[in-house]
Amino acid sequence: MFELPVRPGPEPRTRGPIPHGQLNQISPTTMQEELWQRMRSLPGVYLAPTHVPYPEARAIHLAPEFGTGPEDAFIKRSREFAHLHPQQDGSLHMTLPQLVKKEVTEAGWGIPHPIQNTQLVYGPRDREEMETVWKILLESYAYARGKSTQV
After folding, report:
1. Peptide bond connecting 19 to the previous residue in cis, omega within 30 degrees of 0
2. Segment Disordered: which positions (predicted)?
3. Which CATH code, of 3.40.50, 3.90.1150, 3.30.2010, 2.60.40, is assigned to 29-145?
4. 3-state DSSP helix/strand/coil percent for the chain, to nearest 5?
5. CA-CA distance, 19 to 53, in Å (whole number)?
6. What is the secondary structure of 60-109 as a DSSP string?
């Protein structure tokens, strides 16, 4: 079973549905960049524009031979499964299995997108939060690869 610690403090303010993002408690730029480097280094990942109306977002896509997950493991029937919002926001959207979405929401790490199949995950504010956000992102990656045990 996928479990997360409860995110400390109040949840950040958000906006949306389009664009959907985080308004305060912004992740430090250095953490955003570290997270981006981790995201883009996953095996089978390639970089391409996002398929959502937030052109400044940096998206990761999964090559077909790596991505054998269900249709809803990808954003808008593309190969994209996650993207990182611009520095003034620092949150992410990603696809996740339903049980993981529920845990992310209940533990206070994010909220479902109001009109898409993605989950908004709040940007990490410190090193400990970085590891939790990375754990969530790895679930998105496993889901897109067809290897999630949380479905």
Report:
1. yes
2. 1-24
3. 3.90.1150
4. 30, 20, 50
5. 7
6. EEE-TTT--S-GGGSGGGSSEEEEE--TTT--EEE---HHHHHHHHHTTS
Query: Which single residue is written with the structure tokens 């109306």?
Result: 53
pLDDT in tens, 6-53: 999 999 999 988 889 999 999 999 999 999 999 999 999 999 999 877
Pick from 9, 11, 2, 1: which is nearest to 121 by CA? Answer: 11
Taking CA atoms, 134 is separated from 4, 71, 137, 139, in Å, by 11, 23, 5, 9
Q: Residue 117, SS3?
A: coil
Query: Each residue of 61-92: pLDDT tens digit?
Result: 999 999 899 999 999 889 999 999 999 999 99
Q: What are the tokens at 84?
A: 């990182």
Q: Which of 26, 133, 30 is CA-nearest to residue 85? A: 26
Tokens of 94: 């990603």
Give residue 68's identity as a one-letter amino acid code: T
Q: What angle do CA 93, 95, 101 make, to 5 degrees?
A: 95
